[in-house]
Each structure stands twice: as structure tokens, then as C-alpha cells.
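Hi W.,

Here's what went into the run:
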Amino acid sequence: MKLPLGYVDSEGTGKIRKIVIDSSAATETFLAHNLPDKAVSYATPVGLLAMMMIFDWKLGLICLIPAVIAFVLMGTLMMGPKMAEDMKQYQNALEAMSAEAVEYVRGIPVVKTFGQTIYTFKRFKAAIDEYEKWTLGYTKNMMLPMVAFTTAANAIFAVIIIAAFIFTSNGVTDNFVLNLFFYMIITSVLTVTLMKVAYAGESQMIVDDALNRMYEILETEPLPETEKEETPKDSSIKLDNITFAYENSSNNAIDGVSLSVKSGEHIALVGPSGGGKTTLASLIARFWDVKSGSIKIGGADVKNIPMNSLMNYVSYVFQDSKMLKMSIKDNIRMGKPDATDEEIINALHDAQCMDIIEKLPDGIDTMIGSKGIYVSGGECQRLSIARAFLKNAPVLILDEATAFADPDNERLVQQAFEKLSKNKTVIMIAHRLSTITNADNIYVMSDGKIAESGTHNELLSKGGIYNHMWNEYNKSVNWQVGKAGKK
Ligand code: ADP
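Here's what came out:
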């Protein structure tokens, strides 16, 4: 819970899910099942060794020959650092495949609607191929050592029969026959023990790998907590020459951006995809820390505002908002845990959600995600606006959805946005330029920089990128209207 929001965003839920569920399950299997086996596999050979030497040390030694060979094979070929590394790669491939599978399952509606196949999900296909490569490689590497080991471990019985023939070539004593029976019985125990040691070794490698993965998460540093706490004086925002690069990338996603927004002003971020709009907005909510420069809300550096207060100051309405599997009421209440039912209904009303509530069987007590009750993307965004209404934070970051299924929804979301934005400082990541013509300032982001800024009219008269975007936008709108008219 302490890790930066950006971490969860970029690691991918599939990978974290696998570690939380599978890796921790692996430690349970080890502790509950393999650890006792391991104790047995260490204790039994010692006891066996003593017994095998007591009755007939020659037969005892002969039994030990294949056992020693099996041990050596196991230690050198089946465990060693090379195998541990292979196991790690194998688990990595499994992890990648699991992460991609989650994405694939989420995308099934698209695949079905557009008649696509698994091959459209290139990354999933690549993950499966990679997994296949490692599984086959691992299996091939293990094939010979495993056959040799199993043969050696099971050869003890054969060796003892051959030895018996040799030792009895000059006649048989009763004592020898009794000893032979003893060794014939005891050798099967030796074989079973050797197999157990081998499996215990394998589960040790699996649990080591699982622990390493869990530590990777546990050792990730949360964003540093401040020692000199500051409280924002108002809801103005000031970015001073900030730069930011994602960990796995050498380019700056944000490259020297400065801007200031007065309390109550509404600004819009527009520009080509990949220009840095989302990154800039998420830096203001401190999903990550900037590499250089500073971000201030009401004069206080976001690094010095304790996380809880910052979250009370900033509401973020994401493009793909998530509803959890609980009642609508509890979902909305996340915006303000002590909200009364009346406050929740008011928020739903303000966020234009009443039509959603009316069609649900139990109104605001309906469980989302159960018995086939789901809300559409646009409805989900309106519900998350209701959350933001309840939270009533003075700074609002709105990520406008790129596409809505229907114009009704689009209109309702717009109305809800407008109402929510009143008396707040608003940063809107906009895709439809018509919604931001009244913004106090529009920033065109491109390649992590501010390419242009000004009001709608100022930018149009500049005749630059924005002007071009506006013309293109109008063309596409007219085209849609034209098409609709011809129908
Ligand atoms: P926009 O919102 O304008 O489409 P983004 O802020 O999403 O732009 O992206 C800016 C740049 O940062 C792009 O080059 C994108 O590929 C990169 N980027 C975005 N998110 C991540 C991430 N989690 N990890 C690495 N690079 C990222």
C-alpha cells in the first residue's frame, strides 16, 4: 500500500497478482509439505547407513555404490547454480505469460467483436512462445540427468542380486541368506529416500525463487516521506522546470515543463498521443517523484505534503475507472468513508448517475460484478465522478475518455464534469477539443514539452499545432455528421 501509485500502474496487475498469489502459495507448500519431507530425507540416510554397515559391511558398501552415483548426479547435474538460473528463467517466462493472459482475458470482448484470433495478441503469443522455449529447454536439460539418476537410484536392487550371486559362489550360509533378505528390503527404502531428496531439492529451488520475487516487491522503496511538512495555502499549482523519465526508458517523458495555474482556473492538456499529458497529470498527484524541478500545490512542494493530505487535496478521475466488487453505495463511499447515505445519493445525482441507479434491481445497494450486474465504461466513469463529488477535493484532474459507446453517455459525463469543476482548480486531459474551448489556458504537449499555450482563440490565431488539431478535429466531427445524415 505504501508503494507509489505509478509502480502499480507500470508493473502490471498480472505480474503482481502472480507474485502475491503463486509465490506466496509456493512458500506454503514448502513449509507445510516439503519441509517435513526434507527433514526425513536428511535423517533417513544417516540411520540407513548405520544399519547397512552393521549386518554385512561388504553388502552394505555394494548397495552404496549406486546410491553415491545417484547423489553425485543429483548434486552436479540437477541442482547447481546453472539449474537455479534455468528455474528462474522458467519462472520469469511463466510470470510473463500469466501477466499477458490477464490482458488477453480482459480483451476477449474486443477479440470476439472484431473476429480476431489469439495471433492478434502478439505479446501474449510471444509470451507463450517464450514459455514453450524455456519449458522445452528445461525439460531437455533435465532429461538425461533425470534418467541417469532414476536408473542409479533404482539400480541398488539389481546390484545387490549380482553381489549375492558372486558372494554365494562358494556356498551359502543361513546367516548370509538372512542378511540378504534384510538388504533386499532395506534397499527399496534407500531408493525412495533418494527420490525424496531429489524432489526436496527441486522444491527448495522453487521456494528460493518465490522468496526472491516477493522480496523484490517488499524491497521496492516507497516515495520518501518528508520531514518538513507543508500545508497547501490554496489550490493553485506551480510546476517549475520539471523533468521526469520512466525507470526503463532513457528519454525524458517530461522535459523541462513550467506552468502555473491560479486557484479556480481550468486548464487543458492536449496534444498527440505519447506527448506526456498523462505523465504530467500523474506527477501532480505524485504517482512518481520528478527527476528535477518542483511541483507546488498552494505553495507547498508535493514532496512535503503527507500522502494522505495530498490525496485529500487532489481528485483524479481516470479514463478507465475501476469499480470494486461491492455495492454501488460502498463503491461511492470510498470517496469519503464517513459519508451518509444522503450525501451519497446527492453525489450520484450531481454526477448524473440516477438513470444507472434506477435500472439496477436494488438501487444503490446493488452489488457490482455479481449475478451478471455490470456497468458500462461510460457509466463507470460517471460513478467515479460521483466518488470525486463526495471527496470534494479542491484540485481536480480529469482524464477524458477517448471514446464513448453512445452520445447520451458522453453528454451526461460532460454535464457531470462541468458541475464537478465549479470552484475547483481543474486540469483536464482532453481529447475532444470542443469540450475545452472555454478553458483559461490550453497547453499543447508534444515530446514531453509544452509546444504552445494560450486560450482557444489565441492558439487559433497563432496558426500552429493547435490550429491544425482544431481543423482536423472539426473535419472529423463534420465527417461523422455527414455520414449520419446520409443514412
Ligand atoms: P499522453 O498522455 O500524452 O498520450 P504519456 O504521458 O502517456 O502521453 O506518455 C509520455 C511518454 O512516456 C510516451 O513516450 C510513453 O511511451 C512513455 N510512458 C508512458 N507511461 C510509461 C510507463 N509506465 N513506463 C515507461 N514509459 C511510459
